[in-house]
Amino acid sequence: MDPSPYDHPYRGGFVGKEHRFALTVFFEDTDTAGIVYHANYLRFFERARSDMLRAAGIDQRAAIDAGLGAYAVSEMAIKWRRPARLDDDLVVISRVTEVRNASCSIHQRVMRGDEILAEATVTAALLTPEGRPRRQPADWIERFRSIEQKGH
Q1: Which residues touch 25 (CB under 8 Å, ≥6 apart)?
Q2: What is the reported pLDDT for 152?
Q3: Which of 89, 123, 88, 91 lies closest to 104 in space, CA to CA?
Q4: pLDDT one-digit tens code per residue, 8-47
Q5: CA–CA gap between residue 95 and residue 101 (Å, rounded)
Q6: Which of 12, 25, 65, 77 is 20 to 30 A away from residue 113, measured at CA?
Q7: Is the residue at 64 inside a domain?
Q8: Residue 3 pLDDT exceeds 90
Q9: Alpha-carbon distances of 78 from 64, 127, 131, 138, 152, rounded to whole Å
Q10: Is 2 among the domain residues?
Q11: Residues in domain Thioesterase (predicted)?
Q12: Catalytic residue list contains 31
């Protein structure tokens, strides 16, 4: 049986400096009133950041397998503005705002059309398998700086 184009997971991508990741609100994301439970925005942000790393050419699985470590959120500030609801089509827009030796800062917005529903500022630090901060590989820093300054 030949694979269908629908057999492949969705991938977002860069539009200039911004990474765009589309999603639909499913029943599991909501409370009994059909409104997205506040903690589920964390999952939306995380999926978009992971997809952004993939689109930037950073292979998190290979880094973990090689013993390099993994990114972990070390700081996050969120502002909820409006509720998302069951069946809403959303876009999470992520933009790298600062790159440091062992971490980077990312601004993220959950959008419904032109409306900002939630936004977050996230600091993600690269940690060793033992949980200690470590310097990011030079090529990763360069990729982040390229995205931050010129767009991907």
Answers
A1: 36, 84, 85, 86, 87, 88, 90
A2: 59
A3: 123
A4: 888 999 999 999 999 999 999 999 999 999 999 999 999 9
A5: 18
A6: 77
A7: yes
A8: no
A9: 28, 23, 24, 30, 25
A10: no
A11: 34-117
A12: yes
Chain position carrying tokens 């959008």: 111
**How many C-alpha atoms does 73 have within 13 Å on its Cβ side?**
16
- The rounded distance, in Å, linking the Cα atoms of 91 and 60 is 23
Number of domains in the chain: 1
Write the CB contacts of 108 (distance below 8 Å, at least 6 apart in sequence).
Answer: 45, 48, 49, 92, 93, 94, 95, 119, 120, 121, 122
Q: Which of 31, 59, 87, 89 is catalytic?
A: 31
Residue 3 lies in a domain: no
Give buried/exposed letters for 20-56 (b at 16+ CB in 10 A, else e).
bbebebeeebbeeeeebeeebbeebbeebbebbbbbb
Q: Which residues contact 49 (CB under 8 A, 6 or more apart)?
A: 94, 106, 108, 122, 124
- Among residues 116, 127, 9, 152, the alpha carbon closest in space to that of 73 is found at 127
State the Cα–Cα distance between residues 118 and 120, nearest whole angstrom.
7
Find the domain containing 19 and state its range: 13-149
Q: What is the pLDDT of residues 103-126, one digit of tens each?
A: 999 999 999 999 999 999 999 999
Does residue 5 lie in a domain region?
A: no
